[in-house]
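The protein record quoted in full:

***
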Amino acid sequence: MSGRSNYKRAPPLATVSPFSRPIKKIVIVGGTHGNEYTGVWCIKSIEKQRDLINKKADNSTPNIFNDFPSLDIATLLANPVAYMQNKRFVDADLNRQFSVEKLRQVAAKSNSEEEECDISREFCSNDNPSQSLPHESIRAREIERILGPKVLSDAADQTEFDNTEPLTDVVVDLHTTTANMGISLIIPEGDALMSAAAAYVLHQCKTKYGYDSVQCLMHALPKRADRQNLSSCGRHGFTIEVGPVPQGVLRHDVIEKTQAAMHSLLEFLHLRNLELEERRDNASSGVLGKLKEIYPNNIVPCYRSAPAVRPGELSGKISWKNDSTNPNFPDVIIHKSLQDRDFEPLHVGDPLFVTLDGTVIPYDGSHGDEVHLIFVNEGGYYYASSGTGVGVAVKSRFDWATGWFFADSDDDGESEEVVVEEKDSYE
């Protein structure tokens, strides 16, 4: 089946300034995917630092609780069962379970069937034959209660949903990828505070830490209710994705890159808190003033992910068919010219896939004449639950002060549409 859908940039909404509210409660999450060990290492390191503070130990190494005292920092191991099994997930991708629609479905089934998930057991969703919910669906509801709420049982419409008051100000979700994505800062469209934070982190990672491969990736999902990822449970969500690194492997350099981005984010939030506490809100000074100097006209370069068109996708992908005997084994491989070339351009007619008999399948322009591939040969995207295929993005720019894309315009001033060809997979 194929079809076409149009995606337009949503217009900015008039709201109270997102920079006028202090940020206090931060939850840093690791192990959303159980075989991505870097995030788990980072949260264990944070808890070790907390232990040293509590013991008043004399330690010369940096400690985030000393460095950012205005922040109330907690950690969460998102999927302990998958982590103990060194698996991406038990039954389904946890990072695809957090849309309001999915959370409500779990709530309705849980209430009617009185199902509970004991996360200390390996396959809690399979132990009881009468239990119909996947492990990650139940775990998502538990996490949403801890970090949110994102769902209110009595919220009948979007207006009521928008008035929810999550317990967590910012959820920071730490991920790794097998793809050559460098340090990727992933934020949703329309969140001005996280856009400003990403602009700050982008600059710090390049200048203070000296990393070259750093970029912002903005998902075109303005409505929090529609976001499927875990970080959307908080008032604000920020995802740090670093690669390449194999699944189930710890690399010192990847951990350092993740921590550099994480510390830069915490630094931004802490500095802004101090300015609010001291009532220093001059636009020409402070951390926001610094951003104005770094980014003329507030323009921050980024990549804009294509809109999702299939179940399991956070963003659009060029998908492939899977082997008839194994749903996780592709019928094609990614062409060698694209391997490790994340964020580089792909044009119509360029080699894309290779079949078993050696036939080269070119890119057919389904997402535009020129696109930039992301998550190229990501191991997690071999699973249907995560959305199979290779990610697609286009070069773009956003306004860090509003969180919205700068839309390309015609002479009549109307924003350009991004047209996406919807089809199940390459034949």
